[in-house]
Amino acid sequence: MHVVFVAAEMVPFSKAGGLADVVGSLSAALVRARHKVTVVLPLVAGIDPEAFSLARRLLPVEVALGGKTHRIEIFEGRLASGVEVRVLRNEEMFERDAIYTDDADEPLRWGLLCKAALFLLAHDGEAVDVVHSHDWHTALIPYYLAHGVVSSPNLEAAASILTIHNLHHQGVFGSEMIDPLELDRSRFVPEGFEFYGKLNVLKAGLVTADGVTTVSPAYAREILEPEMGVGLDGVLRALPEGVAGILNGVDVDVWDPSTDMRLEARYDASDLSGKAACKRSLQEDLGLPERERTPLVGLIARLVPQKGVDLLLSIAPRLLRSDVQLAVLGTGDQGLESGLERLASRYPDKVAFHKVFEERLSHRFYAGCDLLAMPSRFEPCGLSQLIAMRYGTVPVVRHTGGLADTVVDLDRDLETGNGFVFGRIDAVELLGALLRGLASYSSEQEWTGLVRRLLGTDVSWDRSARRYLALYQARGGATRAAP
Ligand code: ADP
User: Fold this and answer.
1) Do domains 2-249+462-474 and 273-455 have the same CATH topology?
2) What residue ranges do the domains of the chain occupy?
3) 470 vs 457: CA distance, rounded Å
4) DSSP-derived 3-state class of residue 423
C-alpha cells in the first residue's frame, strides 16, 4: 500500500507532544511492514531543511484558499527509516512562534496544509491507497476528499482515515470561516460540521472519513459517553463503522536505555548499574543531593490541567514528608509553572523544576528517575508511561484511557503488575498510590524485580501497526494494491 500521513508535527522535525512521536514512529513501523509511507507536514519555525538534507523542488505550487493564493515551497527527503517526507513551506502561514497558535487565521493555516497536501498528492503522479490524518489540524483532508475539493485519479481510490489523538482539541470557529475554508454551507447542519452554531473542523472530518480511530481501546470507549465525549459523543456513537481504539507504541530504537548516548551510562535488565549512574548524574544536574536510596519521582509533561499537575502540587507537602525527591520537566500554564517554582524554592533539597521542553533532557529524566507520576484527568493513550517503562521507571497513573490499558496495579503478593494505579481524580488517592510506590521501593529486592519486569515489556509498534494495516485494508485502502 501507499500510505500518506498528513500531520502538524513529526519527530525528528518538530514536536509539541506525543502526536509528533506517533507520526514519526508509526510511519517507520509501516515501512518496516514493507509498505510505502509518505508524510506531509508543514515547515514550522525551527525546522532547518539543510539539517535534514531535504531538497527543495525547483517549482513551488500555488494553492488558493481564503481568497488568497499561497505560494508553497516543497522540500523533500527520505528518512533513514525509509519514510518519505514532504515538508511544505509558507513562511507567512506556517512559521509562527509556536506550531499551534490562537491567531485569528488558525483555521486557515491548517486548512491550507490540508489543501496543499492534497494538491501535492494529486499532481505527484503516484496513486495513494490511504490518506491518514491526525487530529483536527488535518481533519479537512477527509472532508476535501469526500467533497471533491481536490480530486485526481491518484486520489480516487484513497481511503481516508482520521485519528483522534486528543478529543479536547476540535478546531471550533465562528461560521464566518465556512466560506474561506471552502466548505459547503449546506453541510452546516447537525449531521454535518455544525456544532452548537459554530463550525467544528474535527467534526467535518469525523463525518466524512472512511475510518475513525483513536489511540487506545479504553479511550475509544470513554469518548462515546457524555462525560468524556467533549460534546461529540453522539457524533462518535453514530459513526457507522464506530471508533477503533489502537494503542500507540514507542520508537524502541530512539528510546532504548541499552544504546541511548544521551545518558550518563547505558543499561538493560541484566545489569542495572547504569541506571544508578543515570540517577546520580540527574541528581547532580538538578542540584539535588546525590542519594542513591532516596526514591526520585519524575514528572515529564505539558503543564496543562489534563495532566493533573495540580493534584501533585496539592499533595506535594505531604509527600515530601517522606524521604523522596521530585523532578519536574515541563512547560505550560503559568499558574502551574509558578506553583512548581514555589514548591522548588520551598524544598530546594527535595524538588527540582526544569521549565523547558527539551528532548535530550527528557531521556535523562526517564532514565534517572525511579518513578514517573502521571495523574492525568484523561489520557487518550499517553506515551510518557510507555517510555518510562522502557527505561525501567515505574509509572504512577490514574486509571483512565491509555493509562488504564497499559498500567496494571502492582500486586505485591502475586508479584504481578507494572505500576501504581489510582482511580478517582483525587489528590489523596494520588498520594496513596505514590506512597505505595515508595513502600515498594524500600524493599530493594521487590523493586529490582519490578524494574526488570518493566525493562522486558514490549512497548513497540509491532502489534498496533498490524492493526492499522488491517483497518486500512478493511476501509478499502488496498483495493488497488498489486495482486
Ligand atoms: P501529550 O501528547 O498529551 O503531550 P504523551 O504522553 O502522549 O502526552 O506524549 C508526550 C511526549 O512529549 C513524550 O514524548 C514526552 O517525553 C514529551 N515531553 C513532554 N514534556 C516534555 C518536556 N518538557 N521536554 C521534552 N519532552 C517532553
Assistant:
1) yes
2) 2-249+462-474, 273-455
3) 24
4) coil
Rg value, the chain, Cα: 23
- Give the separation between CA 391 and CA 276, rounded to whole angstroms: 12
Which residue minimizes the CA distance to atom 20 of ligand 1?
301
pLDDT of residue 395: 98
CA-to-CA distance for 188 and 175, rounded, in angstroms? 9
What are the tens digits of pLDDT across the range 197-242?
A: 999 999 999 999 999 999 999 999 999 999 999 999 999 999 999 9
- DSSP conformation letters of 356-384: ---HHHHHHHHHH-SEEEE--S--SS-SH
- Which of 169, 359, 384 for a ligand 1 pocket mutation test, highest count of atoms within 8 Å of Cβ? 384
Site of grid cell 542540584: 287
Measuring from each residue's beta carbon to the nearest atom of ligand 1, which residues come in under 6 Å? Answer: 17-19, 21, 300-302, 329-331, 357-359, 362, 381-384, 387
pLDDT at 483: 32
- Tell which CATH architecture fits domain 273-455: 3-Layer(aba) Sandwich (3.40)
Rounded to whole angstroms, the Cα distance separating 56 from 51 reads: 13
* pTM of the predicted model as reported, rounded to 2 decimal places: 0.95
Q: Determine the residue type at 100.
A: Y
User: What letter represents residue 320's amino acid?
Assistant: L
241 alpha-carbon distance from chain centroid:
24
Specify burial of residue 92 (Cβ count, 10 A radius: 0-12, 13-18, 19+).
exposed
Q: pLDDT tens for residues 323-364?
A: 999 999 999 999 999 999 999 999 999 999 999 999 999 999
Establish whether the linkage from the previous residue to 60 is cis, with ω within 30° of 0: no
Under 8 Å CB-to-CB from 363, ≥6 apart: which residues?
A: 255, 260, 262, 263
Dist. CA 115–CA 151, nearest whole Å: 11
| 113 phi, psi to nearest 5 deg | -60, -45
Ligand 1: atom nearest CA of 165 is: 2
Q: Are 222 and 400 in contact (CB under 8 A)?
A: yes
Longest dimension (CA), the chain: 67
C-alpha cell at 24: 514519526
Amino acid at 309: V
Mutate to test the pocket of ligand 1, among 9, 10, 21 (most ligand atoms within 8 A of CB): 21
Could you tell me which CATH number the domain at 2-249+462-474 has? 3.40.50.2000
